[in-house]
């Protein structure tokens, strides 16, 4: 009978149950994945832009302070080789800019971010150093208050950024998406191999198969693009590149503050 009975049994099951179930699962997973990864890209870039602007503001605040604006307990007067507190503050800011560049590089994996203690950074020491400004001169109190506000905001943005960068889907999530997509392709091949589809010529079948594979490949390419912060159309590298001239500017301010030509 030309396998008519088998076709009659299999076709309703495949078209009415198997393919719709897999298609719904694939559509839900793909939509959620793309939306989440896109939001992650936007959030990381937003936090980086905020940190960049606030670092520039903090640079201006610290650059306007002199050693006389700090309390004697933090000046280190008379101690050979100990820089003044204003220079130490700029050094800490420069080192934090370097940390920010490192944390935003491709070498910084989610595993390394999760293994690190988030609270260990130069902002903690800088905030403690700013505590020596409050007791010095009345004219310096607004500068120290502004510095504290910026440092607190930087800490919040950094914590949120690292949380976003460390939040990734497990490998099994992408494996399930790939399995759903391959299952739909396999079901197409099963359906197109049946006698009932002989009214379609080879070109039509190839065209439908090419469309199906093209959609799956495009979906995979989009997810691969969004899953990596450092490649593709939505990468964060243009924002990170702006940190390099900022670090150089801070290093120049430090050079002027210390009266040297080179800053290591």
Question: What attributes does this structure have?
Answer:
mainly alpha; 264 residues; 0% strand
What's the helix-strand series?
A: HHHHHHHHHH
Class by alpha and beta content: mainly alpha
Main sheet specs: none
Continuous helix count: 10
Amount of helix: over 70%
> Mean pLDDT score, rounded?
80
Q: What is the rounded Rg?
A: 29 Å
The termini sit apart by 85 Å
Shape: elongated
Strand content: under 5%
Low-confidence stretches: none
Total beta-strand segments: 0
Write the layout of secondary structure elements.
Blueprint: H1 4-63, H2 72-75, H3 85-103, H4 110-115, H5 122-130, H6 141-166, H7 171-192, H8 202-227, H9 237-240, H10 243-258
Helix pairs in contact: 1-3, 1-6, 1-7, 1-8, 1-10, 3-5, 3-10, 5-6, 7-8
Descriptive overview:
The protein has 264 residues and is mainly alpha-helical. The protein is 73% helix and 0% strand. The chain is built from ten helices and no strands. Helix 1 packs parallel to helix 8 and helix 3 runs antiparallel to helix 5. The longest helix is centred in the N-terminal third of the chain and has 60 residues, at 4-63. It is elongated. 20% of the residues are buried.
């Amino acid at each position: 009978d030309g396998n008519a009975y088998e076709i009659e049994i299999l076709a309703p099951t495949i078209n009415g149950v198997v393919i719709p179930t897999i298609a719904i699962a694939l559509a839900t997973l793909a939509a959620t994945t793309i939306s989440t990864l896109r939001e992650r890209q936007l959030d990381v870039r937003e936090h980086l832009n905020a940190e960049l602007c606030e670092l520039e503001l903090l640079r201006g605040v610290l650059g306007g302070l002199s050693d006389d604006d700090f309390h004697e307990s933090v000046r280190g007067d008379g101690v050979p080789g100990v820089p003044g507190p204003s220079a130490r503050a700029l050094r800490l800011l420069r080192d934090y800019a370097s940390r920010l560049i490192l944390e935003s590089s491709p070498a910084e994996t989610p595993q390394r971010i999760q293994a690190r203690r988030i609270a260990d950074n130069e902002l903690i020491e800088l905030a403690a150093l700013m505590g020596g400004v409050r007791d010095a001169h009345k004219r310096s109190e607004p500068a120290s208050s502004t510095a504290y506000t910026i440092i607190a905001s930087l800490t919040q943005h950094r914590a949120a950024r690292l949380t976003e960068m460390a939040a990734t889907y497990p490998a099994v999530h992408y494996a399930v998406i790939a399995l759903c997509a391959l299952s739909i392709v396999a079901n197409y091949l099963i359906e197109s191999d049946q006698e009932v589809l002989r009214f379609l010529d080879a070109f039509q079948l190839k065209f439908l198969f090419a469309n199906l594979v093209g959609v799956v490949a495009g979906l995979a390419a989009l997810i691969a693009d969004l899953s990596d912060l450092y490649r593709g159309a939505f990468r964060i590298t243009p924002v990170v590149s702006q940190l390099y001239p900022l670090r150089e500017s801070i290093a120049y301010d430090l050079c002027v503050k210390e009266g040297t030509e080179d800053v290591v």
